[in-house]
Design brief:
The protein has helices spanning 32-41, 54-57, 63-70, 86-94, 104-108, 111-120, 156-166, 187-196, 210-218, 229-232, 238-247; strands at residues 5-13, 16-21, 24-30, 46-51, 77-80, 99-102, 125-133, 141-145, 150-155, 170-175, 201-204, 224-227. By secondary structure, it is of the alpha/beta class. Keywords: Amino-acid biosynthesis, Cytoplasm, Histidine biosynthesis, Lyase.
């Protein structure tokens, strides 16, 4: 049975890690380089780094911060925010990332998924998707871009399938409704997407306690779970989360620290 991954998310704005609720009312958490090192040393399986205002501000990613974070860790590292071309992706990979996450730019230019997979390999290409519950959509969820600011006409399920067909090798699926609430993942959304695509799906948005990860692994069929608030605020640790999941029979990787 494949091991489930615990992925820690660093949302970065103006060079600092920040966290909000449903993409609003963000508060500063700390330095991304120091936090990355801390989470690596305490057993995170992967890290994701999102420059959360790059797309909305129409600028490139903070490449020097990416380079500094990559120098501190020795686990898979995914980077997203404002990546609009193959050169942008190449720069991030050369800076030390193993994967590039494409969200708003993939919606605006879907061909970038195919081009990125052809150039760097499907395993490097992650679709980041922010979805909002909307009964007007066939699946019940609408894709939203630009950091939750801009609704699209895309149905979440249709977009997931299309993105995988174009070359996405993984999907990080974030529920805007659950994001930052710490009330649990949107398991209905996660399960629907997980069962519809052939690539790993990382559940994102809503983790507040270890039981929420157990739920999304069992009911949502997630391959990995992203955590932020529950570890940023010190209420839980990655080793503690893994210990709980192991006790429940969920296969997880041993802590390195």
């Amino acid at each position: 049975m494949l091991q489930k991954r615990i992925v820690v998310c660093l949302d970065v704005r103006d060079g600092r890690v920040t966290k909000g609720v449903r993409f609003k009312n963000n508060v500063e958490i700390g330095d991304p380089v120091a936090l990355a090192r801390q989470y690596y040393e305490t057993g995170a399986d992967e890290l994701v780094f999102y420059d959360i205002t790059a797309s909305a501000e129409g600028r490139g990613i903070m490449i020097e911060v990416v380079r500094q974070v990559a120098a501190q860790i020795f686990i898979p590292f995914s980077v997203g925010g404002g990546l609009a071309s193959l050169e942008d992706m190449r720069a991030v990979l050369l800076a030390g990332a193993e994967k590039v996450s494409l969200n708003s730019q993939a919606v605006k230019n879907p061909a970038i998924l195919r081009e990125g997979a052809a150039r760097f390999g499907r395993q490097c290409i992650v679709l980041g998707m922010d979805a909002l519950a909307d009964e007007a959509m066939p699946s019940g969820y609408r894709v939203v871009i630009n950091g939750g600011r801009t609704p699209t006409d895309l149905d979440a399920l249709d977009w997931a399938r299309q993105a995988v067909s174009l070359g996405a090798g993984e999907i990080v699926l974030n529920s805007i409704d659950a994001d930052g609430t710490r009330e649990g993942y949107e398991c209905r959304l996660t399960g629907m997407i997980s069962r519809a695509v052939s690539v790993p799906v990382v559940a994102s948005g809503g983790a507040g306690k270890p039981e929420h990860l157990l739920e999304v692994f069992q009911e949502g069929s997630a391959d990995a779970a992203l955590v932020a608030s529950m570890v940023h605020y010190g209420d839980y640790t990655v080793p503690g989360i893994k210990a709980f999941l192991a006790e429940q029979g969920v296969p997880v990787r041993e802590n390195i620290g």
